[in-house]
Design a protein that fits this description.
This protein is mostly beta strands. 12% of the residues lie in helices and 39% in strands. It has two helices and 28 strands. A five-stranded mixed sheet has the order 4-11-10-6-7, with no helix packed on it. It has a five-stranded mixed sheet with strand order 16-17-13-12-21, with no helix packed on it. Strands 14, 15, 18, 19 and 20 form a five-stranded antiparallel sheet that branches. The chain is elongated. The N and C termini lie far apart (98 Å).
Amino acid sequence: MMKVFLLGLALLPVDSLMYPVVISPQDPTLLIGSSLTASCSVGADSNLRAEDLYWTLNGRRLPAETYEVRSATTLSVTVSNLNGSQQQSGDNLVCHSKDGGILAGSCLYIGLPPEKPTNISCWSKNMKDLTCKWAPGTEGETYLHTNYTLKYKLRWYGRDNTCQQYHTAGLYSCHIPKDLALFTPYEIWVEASNRLGVAVSEVVMLDIVDVVTTDPPSNVHVSRVGDLEDQLSVRWSAPPALKDFLFQAKYQIQYRVEDSSEWKQVVDNVGNQTSCRLAGLRPGTVYFVQVRCNPFGIYGSKKAGIWSNWSNPTAASTPRNGRATGVCEPKNGEHNNTLRRELKQFFGWMRKHGSSYGCANLSIKMYDQWRVSLQKSHKSRNQVLSGDKS
């Protein structure tokens, strides 16, 4: 039984070692669009001749008109306008005997040199590490195995360091877990290399305190506001990992109704507070609410922070019967007109019911009491109208 072994990607019969078979060139690297002429030479003492040979490329037999007999024991083939390699391990160019036996093989690496990596962005989770990602260039596909190496150093006096933990935040990313300095700029760049060359990105300079992100806010609670059918109260805690750092925070809230996958509203710039009241919601509706955090001004940094991930959704429902949808605060003329109308109604209610409170006791609690009484009057009016119709 004939034994075989693996040479590159071509299986060679052990018997062929008695009569050396040589392919030239061996494992070349070529640009896309190139042409290649390769030759297969069998030993003079073998029973094979040039006319006994044929060629395949990735298992497909190449046409005889591409062959040329160079000598009694040498057959060449010319392949023109080569496309990118079908696999990064190279395309298989194989010389066969007329009975189909594999005599020798060569791997063709056909592709493009790497492009300069672009769009480097980095973030630090709670100032304990650094993760960076990048884009592989305008095209990206080189058809060759391309290595990407993230390098970094302290700007003025550091030595070059190489990131070790790749693909942590996607295909083109790397994570530096520790041993990072604060308040000192870093230079960060990416080198791309393959068989056809090397390309180096622009250098990005950053300070860790300027690119901090954190965990999502914790302990998010959503609850009703008494009997107010168009409002929900949202409360949360600041990210605990930053509790000992001197920083400020911005928070954002987004919410959606239960039967929708679309987050319809993002409440921007809620501010450094850890609570917000959502108003103008649909009555008798389940809402899912999420909160995220942007730490900024850490230790006096003047750079904007990086938004955290959203917290896990928290659900609550509004009481039944209500009003049209809205947001935390009025943001356009229509909402301002609604506010003026409601204030006019509220002050009218105050003149009638507020003598026992006095202006000094004016509060949001009194406003809520007015809203509840207003809703009850709407319900009573609707019940009367329904009775008249029946």
